[in-house]
What does this fold into?
Amino acid sequence: MTVATNPAYAGPNPKDYGLPDERELAAWIARSGYFPAFSPPTAASSSQTPAAYSPAVVPKAFPAAPLYTPELPVAPSASAATAGIPRVGEVSLSKIRADFPILAERVEGKQLVWLDNAATTQRPRQVIDRLVHYYEHENSNVHRGAHTLAARSTDAYEAAREKIARFLGAPGKDNIVFVRGTTEGINLVAQSFVKPNLQPGDEIILTVAEHHANIVPWQLIAEETGAVLRVAPVDDTGQIILPEYTRLFNKRTRFASFAQVSNALGTILPVEELIAIAHRFGVPTLVDGAQSVSHIPVNVTALDADFFVFSGHKIFGPTGIGAVYGKKALLEAAKPYQGGGNMIADVTFERTQYHEAPEKFEAGTGNIADAVGLGAAIDYVTSLGLPHTARYEHELLAYGTKELLKIPGLRLIGTATQKASVLSFILDGHSVEDVGQHLARAGIAVRAGHHCAQPILRRFGLEATVRPSLAFYNLPEEIDALAQALRQLTH
Ligand code: PMP
It folds into this structure.
């Protein structure tokens, strides 16, 4: 297997393919997306000026709604639900937080501050209760058996599939395959759709910002087939360099796969453009939505996504469940890579006929209860409104950026103008592990390590960072607690 990082590769001239040149691409990217420019820091040092915080910046696609003002003190008591408490759309944060029992937990003798949302999110009572209801009233295997509980569990399972389809803007529920999560989803697409079409020397395009889950499955099939991985670079802010990405395409390109949001840096990649460019070359794509699906309203039809994958546990749902969206024609063309019960129409020892997608890819008994729980999580997020939660998180991220940049010796890693949720950093004179442990002792949960994304950290000359990551239930006060704990370390 060969990995070509490719800076010297003279690929096709974008103009030959009717593609925009570098300047036009920049304008194209500026026009896209829900998020306004993020006012990133300009210098990567302790003397960097804080990003200008501008509550007046309103994402253009969002309806007007009251903004919280970080300068206002946020009263900690639930009785202050009216004044000063941030709101997500019309709903106050105190009400939202009351839905998440674990947020009231005490750890190390302190109030838990959960800032590890990129690793996994917490579950609202509505999801927990739905799981209990399933096990108490509906539990049965699906699609077989003509009895009442089989009908209940099948209805609940298929209703969850329908909710996911609607949530992602898919044409229908047959576009949705249940899997264990993003990792299994990417492996499914690699093995079922891409590998059967690969010849030695064929090429797969990734970006350097990928999670290992969007690298290793492609390496595995490249090793087996003699295909080559080509890797699109990012600039010093952590944003993909579109002309470089474009230059990677050629006659041998068979597939491109990229994250919508980098888990290590928080960069929002311009996936609409990445897909459109790939399509100009006739190349299908996969979007890894693990880090985007809870932060950015996604519409796979508007994106013209070929495949889109995500994990339930990153969107307030259970672990061990996720979904692959695939265009119908591509799912039909793909070969199942696991065989067994549920996915077959007829079996003889000579030949097996498969069901159509999605069942074709769901061999064996699935994770029925957690699929139903994921449906409840999607109901929950939908009830708050992703445009509202995304907008609130954007404000919180801006506030967090401003506060962290006041800490002497703190360097933010990932300063793209388009970011979601993640505040990766290192602190002069302190190892990443020490910072993580110090924060843990203060009751603050963050990830400290390589975040399963070693290539992108190495792009910045690092092996690890500290990574607080936000969700809509986080408070400005929790950012303050983080900043205060970090200040203790630096003094
Ligand atoms: N891709 C990205 C961008 C991720 O952040 C993660 C999880 N950290 C994954 C893929 C893998 O997700 P899972 O472990 O749920 O399969």
Remarks:
- DSSP finds 15 helices and 20 strands in the chain.
